[in-house]
Amino acid sequence: MTDKSYIRTIIESYHEALGDYDEAFLMGEDVEHALMGTTRGLVDEFGDERVRDTPISEQGFHGLAVGAAMDGKRPIIEYQINTMSYVAMDQLVNNAQKLRHMTDGQVSIPITITVPQAGTPGGSAAQHSDNAYPSVLNYGMKVAVPSTPYDQLGLFRSAVAEDDPVMVFWPAPLIGNRAEVPDERYKIPLGEADVKREGEDVTVVAIGEMVPEALSVADELSPEVSIEVVDPRTLLPLDEETILESVEKTGRAVVVDATNRTCGTAGEIASRISEQAFWHLDAPVRRVTRADVPVSYSPPEESYVIPNDETITQAVRDVTA
Amino acid sequence: MSSQAEQQQTQMEDHDASVLRQMYRKMREIREFELTAQDLSDSGEIPGPVHLYLGQEAVAVGTCLALGTEDIIGSTHRGHGHVLAKGADINRMMAELAGKETGLNNGRGGSMHMVDFSLGIFGCNAIVGASVPHVAGGILSSQLDGEDRVGVSFFGDGASNQGVVHETMNMAAAWDLPVVFLCENNQYAVSTSQETAVAGDKISDRANSYGMPGETINGQNVIEVYETVEAAVEEARETSQPRLVECKTYRYTGHFSGESALLEDRPYRDDEEIEKWKQNQDPIRTFRAALIESGVFDEPELDEIDTEVGDKLETAAKFAKESDYPDGEKAPENTYADQSYPNFPAEKYQGR
Q1: CA dist list (Å): B221 to A152, B15, B23, B66, B158
Q2: DSSP of A25-39, one letter per residue?
Q3: Helix (H, G, I), strand (E, B) or coil at A77
Q4: What average pLDDT does this structure show over A50-76?
Q5: Which residue range(s) make up the domain with B97?
Q6: Is residue B288 part of a domain?
Q7: Cis before residue B345, ω within 30 degrees of 0?
Q8: Which residue among A15, A62, A128, A280 is the active-site one?
Q9: Nearest CB neighbour to A60, from listed B171, B337, B341
């Protein structure tokens, strides 16, 4: 085991992927100089053909990645800004995601799209502070949101190996976190949730940057309330089974996600729990989400919008009342 | 004889009869394919809209004749001509239009999503301009592999105003990607005239912004298209630099099969304009006249080609009609590479 920061595992993942797959190349804005810190040393090792800076043309370079994938490549796109998918939406959901189906399997589009600084880096205001996965999930894009260095390494290996587009969101508040990770290679398959803490009274399903918040609430309320924290790790495919098993055990569920409330990911998970585990529930499923308002620049307003330990505690109190 | 036919008569001298025959046959195939598609659409055999290529045949034929099988094309919502000219199977194309399991995409894609990767056909695309970066991406892949394939990206006057097209032109020029951007200026983006929607004198002038050569030619003259594109492809291959070729052309029928019903009482162009293009610049009629006048082929020889093409389309229509629809239960197949996860992709109703 070695103690590593989350961002260190990202750097290693990139090196490993470009080393493993001759057909892989990485592109994005300012990746050669590693502006985000994630692509350090890549140009030196793999050259500027396979690690290339793009012009600020999001639709265009997503489209080039799709075309290269059609020709047998395995492109990796790194976002500089967490909302870049909005600019590239047509190429992402209407092309990359649908081409396998539209051609009845005649083509694979194995593109990995990485989003460093997803969510709220702090002080980034409305246009640079989203977890932009609900919009792509709605159109069938595979999504991974690793919340620990261990999960990051394992999930990235699976994401790059997928023969479909996968978006990997690296939550901004977690990118400096450190943990012991195994030195030998391991993979975490997509569609496998992780019970981050076992408990008896309430299931808290938490995504990405909300996982440490949920764990700290669990610490705080223990032993009064015994909270089980389930981290889905991938949102599509979603490990419904692990979530339902937990809820069937505890009889109470809170779903925490730092995206908007309306049509957010928490709504989807909460409705699956209600549909599939209704008769095991002792209280209505509660959601803790962002407020349905853009993220403000000013710190107090920013905090107002983002779910935190207080709102999670409130929700746990409500379902156990 | 029209002046276009006279011009072609002179240009013919530089080309083998076999090439001229190919041009004539392929243009006739596209024309008959579209007329057959129109019939099948009218009779309800084709379930979705079709965007006919009638009038534009010379562009696809002249262009694709200049390409090798390994070269890549990207197409549009009006793509039947491109796909046919690049060599796709005519029966499977017609079956695709009819939504049958024997279609190019097994009925999945229909008119606007036909592909054949074995022929470098990276797909028609229903989103205006969306296939343009796909061609450049395929060529980027070729460049990474040290190959010298060339891409041709078909797009229209409408797409010439689409951001992603310009982003791709910039990247192709900056990254030395041999792509021929082939603009088919057929005068209208649906009902919007390029005269009001396109700034500047010529679309080909836009090439200057990206430091690449651009030219505007008569897209109704198949020899002119062939000679221009052949030179452009050769130069692109040699220099690894992109090119822009604007072909002035004209579509005879509405933007799509349902247009006449929608706009019957409020046309955006008059019959006189359509007639003028047909009379003076029809790509097939003028070429046929030139072939006969120059003595390359006589009328019976060309009639024989016409008959063969007619038979071919009859067979294609029969194939499409007699093929089966895919089983509806097949719909979720090939959404993802691996679908072994539970309830994945999710069903429309998940019962107890």
Answers
A1: 58, 14, 11, 15, 22
A2: EEEETTTTTTTTSTT
A3: strand
A4: 98
A5: 13-271+297-329
A6: no
A7: yes
A8: A128
A9: B171
Mean pLDDT along residues B90-113:
98
Letter for the amino acid at A319?
V
CA distance A19 to A296: 41
Q: Which residues of chain A make contact with B109, given a CB cutoff of 8 A? A: 102-104
> Looking at residue B189, which CATH number applies to its domain?
3.40.50.970
CA geometry: angle A258, A261, A263, nearest 5 deg? 110
- The predicted complex's ipTM stands at 0.97
- A101 closest CB neighbour out of B108, B138, B343: B108
Contacts of A108 in chain B (CB under 8 A): 337
Contacts of B167 in chain A (CB under 8 A): 55, 57, 59-61, 63
Give the tens place of pLDDT for each residue, A247-271: 999 999 999 999 999 999 999 999 9
| Per-residue pLDDT at B260 | 86
B139·A67 Cβ contact <8 A: yes
**Helix axis angle, B90-97 to B17-42, nearest 10°:** 20
Domain contains B334: no
Q: At what angle do helices B222-239 and B3-11 cross, to 10 degrees?
A: 50
Whether B217 has a pLDDT exceeding 90, the answer reads: yes
Q: What is the mean predicted confidence (pLDDT) over B287-294?
A: 97
Q: Is residue B347 part of a domain?
A: no
What average pLDDT does this structure show over B100-113?
A: 97
* Pair of tokens at residue B90: 């005519």
Which residues does A131 contact at the CB level (< 8 Å), separation at least 6? A82, A118, A119, A145, A169, A171, A208, A209, A257, A258, A259
- The chain A residue lying nearest B114, using CA atoms, is A103
pLDDT at B351 exceeding the cut of 90: no
What is the overall mean pLDDT for chain B?
Answer: 97
B88 lies within 8 A of chain A by CB: no
Average pLDDT over residues B173-194: 97
Confidence of residue B303 (pLDDT cuts 50, 70, 90): very high
Pick among B105, B106, B134, B325 to test the A interface (most A CBs inside 10 A)? B134
For B167, the closest of A60, A104, A276 (CB atoms) is: A60
Say whether pLDDT at B290 is over 90: yes
CB contact B146 to A (< 8 Å): no
**Are the CB atoms for B184 and B212 separated by under 8 Å?**
no
**Hey, what domains does chain A have and what are their CATH numbers?**
2-181 (3.40.50.970), 194-320 (3.40.50.920)
Q: How many domains does chain B have?
A: 1
Least CA distance to B125: which residue of chain A? A95
Domain contains B340 = no
What distance in Å separates residue A63's CA from the closest CA in chain B? 5
Question: Is residue A128 annotated as a catalytic residue, yes or no?
Answer: yes
pTM over 0.90: yes
Counting residues of chain A whose pLDDT is more than 90, the rounded percentage is 100
Q: Give the mean model confidence (pLDDT) for residues A179-195.
A: 98
